[in-house]
Design a protein that fits this description.
By secondary structure, this protein is α/β, with parallel strands linked by helices. It folds into two domains: 208 residues, Alpha-Beta Barrel (TIM Barrel), CATH 3.20.20; 237 residues, MFS general substrate transporter like domains (Growth Hormone, Chain: A, Up-down Bundle), CATH 1.20.1250. Helix content is 60%, strand content 8%. The protein has 21 helices and eight strands. Strands 1-2-3-4-5-6-7-8 form an eight-stranded parallel barrel, surrounded by six helices. Helix 6 links the parallel strand 4 and strand 5. Helix 11 packs antiparallel against helix 18, helix 17 runs antiparallel to helix 18 and helix 18 runs antiparallel to helix 20.
């Protein structure tokens, strides 16, 4: 039995979150239905993710009818909401009714239209004639040229007040729900709390009544646009898998006293995520070319290699080398702290990059040797695999958190748009965002240093040390 608007009104009143996904064909509709998705939006976003256009504007009403019919045939239970495409409802309320009726006949149970107070009469006209409506305010893609691009809306006090008035007008006109796209989370919360109908957020924070995602973004199969949080989700899944593994008997390959090494590795490689974003920082904050930004990673690499070679020689003379990673991560933390606090300067980036590399380089040579020595030959393969899992998990989480922090500060930014539209972004804003990221990595490095300092001592090459001591005694 198909879900109704009354069902969602009941969920909304009980405080349950609503789940909406876009869908464009019967196969995905059936899969979404089986997965428990309760609202399917046949969005005009199909113009971009299916047809390959650079906006939703070329999508026609006939094309929307075609896709609505496919989704309706594939899904038995979800409520189907259909977008009214550009130029199919703006001319008059009569035009809007004719277009909406065609989508309802094709299989939709509600239609969605973009706009605030200017569309209130249209919403009222449709609702009074038996066509349920979902509103859409904030970033309205059909007005992308008027807005100047796909940018976050409602950032200023005046624009936030206007958006709130638009939302109230759409509710008063009789809309059953309202999509809030690309607005600040605080504003989305304010709008949600001021309305008596559900709000569905997309890029509007977690305080809406529900969330909608473009299916292709969620599955990461649209090559030209990534959901900002996709990497963060993958990092969280990686961490979940890591802890699932470590709760099994597999963790028993490592002595209990040395299991903190795995947490240490997570922290260290979360910090190494800095390398993923430093070229972007150099290109945007210092306006260097892509080629030069890659070469400027060389000081970090040189620092790592230098530290690894030096530590490998020093560690042979030490019984308890764990203090070396603690010192190294303290060094990296201090360098990253300065990088985040001091004014941007190319020489400073190169010098502190080298020092950061030195710190991370101390870990590469020590940690693996300590863990493998403690585990013994019989468990060497298993413990090496655990170390590799910790490294990859740490790197994924670090990159996700660093990117999420930077992109949260820079409006309407993701990795691709930062590089393609570099001239559109204010240099000072970009530098401030990345400096916050550097301070975050500095905190991780400091925590790694603290963790390393608390790891129990492990004697390496015990037999060799005893032989050396005997030789010294014999010489005496």
């Amino acid at each position: 039995m198909r879900h109704t608007l009354a069902h969602f009104a009941k969920l909304y009143r009980s405080g349950e979150r609503l789940v909406m996904l876009t869908c464009y064909d019967a196969s995905f509709a059936r899969l979404c239905d089986q997965a428990g998705v309760e609202i399917l939006l046949v969005g005009d976003s199909l113009g971009m993710v299916v047809q390959g256009h650079d906006s939703t504007l070329p999508v026609s009403l006939e094309q929307m009818e075609y896709h609505v019919a496919m989704v309706a045939r594939g899904a038995e239970r979800p409520l189907i909401v259909a977008d009214l495409p550009f130029a199919s409802y703006q001319a008059s309320v009569e035009q809007a009714f004719t277009s909406a009726a065609r989508l309802m006949v094709a299989g939709a149970q509600a239609v969605k239209l973009e706009g605030g107070r200017a569309m209130a009469d249209t919403v009222r006209f449709l609702v009074e004639r038996g066509i349920p409506v979902c509103g859409h305010v904030g970033l309205v893609p059909q007005s992308v040229h008027q807005l100047g691009g796909y940018r976050v809306q409602g950032r200023t006090e005046d624009s936030a007040r206007e958006l709130l008035e638009d939302a109230r007008a759409i509710q008063q006109a009789g809309a059953a729900m309202l999509v809030l796209e690309a607005i600040p989370a605080a504003l989305a919360k304010q709008v949600t709390e001021s309305l008596a109908i559900p709000t569905i957020g997309i890029g509007a924070g977690g305080n809406c009544s529900g969330q909608v995602l473009v299916l292709y973004d969620m599955l990461d199969i649209y090559p030209d646009r990534k959901a900002r949080f996709a990497l963060l989700i993958m990092g969280a899944l990686n961490v979940a898998f890591f802890f699932l593994v470590t709760r099994t008997d597999f963790i028993d390959v490592l002595p209990p006293s040395l299991r903190p090494f795995l947490g240490f590795y997570l922290l260290v490689y979360a910090g190494v995520a800095l390398v993923f974003f430093l070229p972007i920082y150099l290109q945007l904050g210092h306006r260097v070319s892509a080629q030069l930004s890659g070469l400027l990673l060389l000081p970090i690499t040189v620092g790592q290699v230098t530290a690894s070679l030096t530590v490998t020689r020093v560690v042979r003379r030490m019984r308890d080398p764990q203090r070396i990673p603690a010192i190294g991560m303290s060094l990296s933390s201090a360098a990253l702290l300065l990088l985040g606090l001091l004014p941007p300067h190319m020489g400073l980036v190169i010098g502190l990059g080298f020092v950061t590399g030195l710190g991370f380089g101390t870990v590469m040579a020590i940690n693996q040797v300590v863990v493998q020595t403690a585990a013994g030959r019989a468990r060497l393969g298993a413990v090496t695999a655990l170390n590799s899992l910790a490294r990859s998990t740490g790197g994924a989480v670090g990159a996700a958190l660093f990117g999420a922090l930077v992109f949260a500060i820079i409006p309407d930014a993701d990795r691709q748009s930062l590089l393609q539209r570099a001239s559109e972004y204010d240099v000072e804003l970009v530098v401030r965002a990345f400096h916050h990221g550097f301070l975050f990595i500095a905190a991780l490095a400091a925590l790694a240093a603290l963790t390393a300092s608390r790891i129990p001592r492990v004697t390496l090459w015990k037999q060799q040390v005893e032989n050396d001591e005997r030789r010294v005694m014999n010489d005496e």
